[in-house]
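My current task is to audit a protein record that another person submitted. I need someone to confirm that the C-alpha cell line plausibly describes how this chain folds. Take the sequence as given and treat only the C-alpha cells as open to question. This is what I was given:
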Amino acid sequence: MDLVWLFCVGNPQMFYQFVNIPFAFLFYFLARQGHLSVINRYVYLTLGGFILAIVTMGPYSLLLFFSAVLLLLLIRCLHPMHIHNWTLGLQMCWQTCWHLYIQYKLYWLQETPDFRLLLAISALMLMTQRVSSLSLDLQEGTVTSPFQNSSQDLSVLIPFLSYSLNFPALLGGPLCSFNTFVESVRQMSVTSSLASYLGRLTSKMLQIVALVWIKYPLKELLKSSTFRVNSPCVCQNIIWIWVLSLLLKLNYYAHWKVSECVNNAAGMGFHGYSHSGKSSWEGFSDGSPWVTEASSRPSVFARQWNRTTAAWLRRMVFKRSNRSPLFMTFGFSAWWHGLHPGQILGFIIWAITVQGDYKTHHFLHRKLTSKWKKWLYVCLNWAFTQLTISCVVVCVELQSLESVKLLWSSYIAVFPLLSVLMIIIL
C-alpha cells in the first residue's frame, strides 16, 4: 500500500506518466496493425499531448500551447538561418518570466505555488529543449524547412506541432532530435517483435518498482533519531547529506525510467538490433542509474546524468561558446533550471568540480603507472565524485537559501573546496 502511495500521491507527475502508458499501448498497436496512417499518428500524438496538458495543468497548459504556436509562427515567418537565435531567445524569456513568478510566490509572498503551475513549468523546460533543438536543426540544414519550396499548405506543420506536443515526451522527455522522432513515427510498423517489446517494457517497469522501493529504507534512515545531520560525528554528518542526495537522485532516476517506459510503450525508441540479434530499445533514454552512480569522475557523472539534457547543453552552449565554455554551459543550465539561490550555488560548485577534475586527471594520469595505483585512484575519485555531487544535488533540489545553510553547516562542504584548491595549485 505504501508503494502505491509513493506512485500516486507522493509523486503525482510520475502517476500521470503511468496513466499515459495504456494510451501509448493503444497508439502502438493501432499503428503496428496499420490502422493509423502516418498523418493520423501525428494527430494522435498531438491530441494526446493537448488533452494531457489540459487535464494535468488546467489553465497553465496555455504556457505550452503558446510555445508550440510561437514555434510554428517562427518557422513560417523566418529564414532558417535566423530562426534559432529567435526561437531560443524568445523561449528562454518566456520560461524565465514564469520562473521569476514562481520565485515571487515563494520568497516574496511566502506562498506555495499551485502544483499545476509547477508541472506546466517543468513541461515548458522540456519544450524549450525540443523547440531549440529543432530550430538549430533547421539552421544547420539537417531538417528542411517545410516552406523552403514556397509551399503554402499548412498541413506540413503537423509533424512539427506533434514533435513539440507529443504526449509520451510532454511530462518527462527524454529529448530526441526531430529526425529521430519522425523516423520513429513512420517506421512503427517495422519495429521489433511483440515478445521483445513486451519483455523490454516489463523489465523497465520492474526497474521502476526497484528504484521506488529503495527509497523506503533511505527515508527511514533520514528520519531516525540516532542518525542526524547535526551530529558531532563527522562521518555521520557527511553520510546523512549523502543519503539525502541519493534519495533525491532516486526520484529523478525513477521519473526518467517511467518516461522511457511511456515512449517505449508508444513504440518510440527502437534502436535496431545488436550483433547478437537482440533488439535494442535504448533510442530514447536518459541513461542508466547504475552507470551514472558508478561514475568515478565528476566530469563523467556530468555527461551521464540526465544524458539527453547534457547532450543538449553541450550542443546549445558548450560547442558554441568561444570563452569559458564550461562555465558558460553550467551558467546557462542554472538559468534554464530557474535561477533559484540554491541552483546558482549548485551549478557553480558543479562547474568548479568538473574543472578541478580535468586538471587533477591531467596531472595524475601519467603518474598512475601500476595497477594498484590506478585502482586506488578510481576508488578515491568515486568517493570524491559522490560527495561533491551530493552537494550539487542538495543545493539544486532544495533551491532556497536553506539548502545553502544546510550544506555549509555540514562537513561535506569541504569537498567542493578541495576542487577550488586543486584548480589553484594545478
In short: The radius of gyration is 22 Å. The mean pLDDT is 88.
